[in-house]
Every structure is written in structure tokens, then in C-alpha cells.
Amino acid sequence: MSGGDTPSTLTDHHPHHLRRSVGTVTATATSAGLAFAAINFIGVVSVATFAAGSSAWLAILIGGLLAFVVSGVFSELNGMWPTAAGVRLYISSAFGVRAALIITLTYMTTVILVIAADAFLIGAAIQHVLDEPPALAYVWILALLVIATLLNLRGITMAGRVQSIVTYTVLAGTVLLSIVALTKPGIVPETPFALFGNGVMSGFQAIAFALFLFAAFEWVTTTAEEARKPSVITRALFIGPVLIWLAATAFALGLDHLVPKDVAHGSAYPQLLLGQAALGRVGVIWMLGVTVLTAINTFNGGFLVASRFVYAAAREGNLPRSFAKLNMRAVPWLAVVVLAAVSAVVGALVFATGRWLLLVAVGAALEASVFAIASAALLKLRRTSDRHRPFRLWAGPAVAGFGAVLFAGLALASGFSDPEIPTQFSAAPALIVLGLGAVSTVYVLFVVPRLHRAAAARRAAARASGERVRRRPQRPA
Amino acid sequence: MANWDEVDEALEDYTVSCNTNERLRKMQRDWTRMLHFVCNDTSDTFSMDVQAGEIVSTSQGHTGVPDIVVTTDSETFCDMFWGDINPMPKYLRGEIQVRGSQEDIMRIDAISYVIWPDA
What we know:
The complex is a heterodimer.
Chain A: E1 2-3, H1 9-13, H2 24-35, H3 39-50, H4 56-80, H5 86-95, H6 97-129, H7 136-153, H8 160-183, H9 200-212, H10 230-258, H11 261-265, H12 270-279, H13 281-316, H14 333-353, H15 356-384, E2 391-392, H16 396-415, H17 428-464
Chain B: H1 4-19, H2 22-27, E1 33-39, E2 45-51, E3 54-60, E4 68-72, H3 74-82, H4 87-92, E5 97-99, H5 102-115
Parallel strand pairs in B: 1-4
Antiparallel strand pairs in B: 1-2, 2-3, 4-5
Helix pairs in contact in B: 1-3
């Protein structure tokens, strides 16, 4: 793959640097921080469930290599459209405006899933450590969501430097505890290379879940407008997955060494089990601290990305206008409150059913689908767009074509998996993803045109009543 | 293509609209930024100094170090400053390009939305 520091069109026009801009260290922290959430600990357990013997590390390695394909695809696309609205632009340029809206609306549900999953997992971890009745976990979930909502409504966002410190602390904390775990006497690893030992499909599913560990690292492209130069985002897209791979691999090896698979599999807090096995109570508190820190990134980044997406869609007329309502801190308050409420409902469902692993499977299927679509978009844009590309993916058409097919296959593999009983197939994740896609499609095809017609009628009525006239003076003939 | 006089006239009207809108001033009270603008069709450039939500000066050319850089064609700038268009769809189509933090981009759109909610 090749890439350079060629300035973007914007930089060509404007030679000055911004007063505040994002460099490689912060952008990398954003990439890794958005991806490494509490759900990743459960994700590693899911990988280990499908990978035979002690071969989870191999699935994670392959997942990491596939993440590099995603890095290449998004680097080229981001170079062409370095904007927070990038995903919409790539997909609409390749497949049309409606398809882009359907896909991005479905994609945004991943954010809600991750926020809900993290709220549940962190709530469950706190409840476990405090040795409280299980029902109190939901109180913690609600408390976390309320705190995140209030901080967002007050317009409090984390500075880049703080976000970097939090991310690197989470990653280093996970790696360090895992290394400590590996120094303890433990379970002798068996068949560390037998990834497909439980069958080809099982091995393939392990890779699909391993790819999920990297989910959302590509969201760093939404910060492209504040990057010092386009190559900053490219670097983050390639370094971020390496950091996630290091932390996930260390955790997988540590878990495999000290915690029996069946014990980890049934737990909503495998990271605490590893902490307990490695360092006793100190290890538990250590990993609880790491878990709570992941929430800062998830809630800060997740709420911000999703609520601003909802605001932009409402301003564009693709969602009801009320979602663009701003409070006195210029925060789209209704978007934030609705996101939190939906996350609380999803969190409650997970809490009531205890099916958190289903959430992992749905997330894995959604994310692999998005990777497949982005690869297909690049493949098409190589033929149809001659837009300036600061980064050009080496053997682009071949790599993107390979990515489109492989990621679609991985989406199917996770969509038809049952992480709770790995020997069985389940269509539940695929049905949920299809359901979300169907709701988005119906909405875009039938509701959005109505919203547009209503907006046009409102403008026409305002013009007719003289309430709204063109203000710009006519040019002299 | 709009000439500099047209852009300047639009900018003056925008300044008055912003500075006399009490809700906007209150909402933007913690917002102090230097904005640079680039007309990509005429190569005209101009700056806007915002202090605690008030536009304290606008000038041709670029002054100071920007927090935000907005690039589009001169006609779009005129329409945007007169409040005749909603800038968001153009931003989402890539016709208005902005460099700056997501929060600042949001604030710029919020200004148009608060002054001209029906644009």
C-alpha cells in the first residue's frame, strides 16, 4: 500500500494550519479508543468460543490483518472526501443518495448497540465487584446513561489529550494485567494453531468475531476535518488496529492461560475473572478501573458521533425537524435524549434476557457488512471517479474486490452464528440486522419523501404569506 | 459568481443578524473563534473574528491563526450569509468544505439554524 502527505484540496487552498488540530497520537487514540470498548472483552470470549483449543490468538491475528484491508479502503475514501460526512459521501457517490441514507441509518444503530452493550457490561461489572443483588446492575446501567446524557447536554466533551490518556491507559492496563497473568502457573495451551479444529465454519466464525474487535476504529475518519493533514488519519487507520490487536491478543492469551473457557463463556465480566485469577482483589479492581475507563471513550465518542449525525439528518430534512432542536449550549438535546432512551431500552432487554452475546453477533454482522459495502464502494469509485486521491490503495480493485467478498462472507458467518451455543446455527443476528435494514429502507423510501414534501409546502406557504422572502438583493440587470 | 462587494454586503447583513439575535448570543457566549473563508471560484478570502459569540470584525484577506476554515463558491457564501439557503445539505454533499473540530462545524450550522430556522 502506498500513501503520502500530499495536501488535500482544502490545504492547497489554505496554507495555514489550524490553531487546534489533531496529530497522529491523538487520532490514533481516537481510532483505538472508539474500537476498544467493554464489549471487546466479551468479543474475545466469543472468538475463543469458536476457535478450537487455544487458537483464539490466531483468529485475532487474521482479524487484524483483515482490518488492514479496511484501513486501506477507508484511507483512500477518506482522502477523497476528508469530512465527517465522509461515509455518506462515499456511499452516495458509489450507489446513490437513497442507498447511502439507508446504509448510514442502519450503521448508526451499531452505535446504539455498543452504547447499550457497554452500559450493561459496565453495570454488571460494578454490581459484581460491589457484591450487590443482580437487579442493581440495571440501576448502574441507568446511572451511567444518565451521567453520559447530562454531560452531553451540557456540551462537555473530552479534550483530545484526555481522550489519548484514557485510551492508552486502557490498552496498557489490559496488556499489563494479561502479561502478569501469563507469568502465573496456569492451563497448558492446547492446539494453539488448530483454528479450524471445530470445523471450517467455526473457524470462519472465529475470524468474523475477531474482526468485530476492531469495529469502529474507522470512525476516526469523522475527525478528518480537524486533522493536521490527511496522512494523520491514514496513519491512525493503520496504527490503531495494531494497538487493538496487541491488547486483544494479550487478553486472549491471558484468559486462555488462567480462566477455563466454559467459565469465561458464561460471564458478562471475563476481564474481572482474569483480574481475580492474576492478582486477586487488586486485579479485580484494576480491571474494573479499565472497564469504567472504556465507558468514557464509548459514551463520549458514541453519543457525539450519533447525536450529530441525527442533527445533520434532521437539518437536511431526512429526520423530523425536532431532532435538530438545540439547547442553550448548541447541543441537539432531543437527539441526545432519544439516543440515551433507546440505549436504555436495549440495555434493559439485554439485562432481562441475559443475551449479551447476541449483541456481539449482531454488531459483528453489521460491522462486517459496512466493511463489505465500503470495499464495494471503493471498487466502483475506482472506475467512476477521478477525484484527487492523496492515498491510493495498492492493487486497489483487487484488494477492494477481495474485501467486498470476504467481508460479506464474514457478515453471513456471524449473522448465522449462535455465540451462546457455538455448535449450533442461529439466524437471530442476521434477522435483527435485516430487520434494522428493512426499517431504514421503509423509512427512507416512504417517510423521507413525506418529510421533504412537508418542508417544501412549509416554505411555499411562508413565501406566499410574505413571511419568508429571498433576502439577497437582486443583481442589477 | 459573486464579486467581493456582494460577498461583503452579505457578510455585513450576517454580522448584524448574528449580533442582534439574543438567543444566539446567549447560546454562543462561550464561543471565541477566528474563522477564515475561501471562495474557491474567485480566490477571494476573508476573516471573521468571533469573541464570546459576537462577531467583532470581518475583513478581507486572512488575519491571525484560524480555528476554522470554510471553503465554497462565492454564490454559496452570499446565499448562506443572507440566510437564503440551509448550508447543511451542501455540507453533506461536500459542496461546502470545512476544516475544524466537529463541535465548531456544528456551531457554524447552528448560527444559520437559529437565525433562519426555515431556510
